[in-house]
Design goal:
By secondary structure, the chain is mostly helical. It contains three helices and two strands; from the N terminus they run αααββ.
Length: 100
């Protein structure tokens, strides 16, 4: 057998295997990323629903209340509350957030 032809065959075989590997891995990564993003969105929606439920039960909620309820940082709690204000679900009164 001709050695240069054998080397060329192995080389092109490796290139094809590499390209298939990259395609499969990128597809797997993309699917995992989409699933992760969906899970984050559903968790955020559930947590915002819990905030609204707490606001319905009490006269108002604070950032500390949301931190305790959800086990999140003050930054995330404020972000959720601000989003609910922007969506006109809550209104900020002093340091408390109340239903509109």
């Amino acid at each position: 057998m001709n050695v240069p032809v054998l080397v060329a065959g192995i080389f092109f075989g490796l290139i094809i295997a590499f390209r298939i590997s990259v395609y499969v891995n990128s597809r797997v990564i993309r699917e995992a990323s989409e699933k992760h993003n969906y899970n984050l969105a559903s968790r955020k929606k559930r947590q915002k629903t819990e905030i609204v439920s707490l606001a319905e039960e009490t006269s108002g909620v604070s950032i500390v209340d949301i931190q305790r309820l959800l086990g999140v940082s003050a930054k995330i709690a404020k972000k959720y509350l601000d989003e609910l204000v922007k969506e006109q679900v809550l209104v900020k009164v002093g340091r408390y957030y109340k239903l509109t």
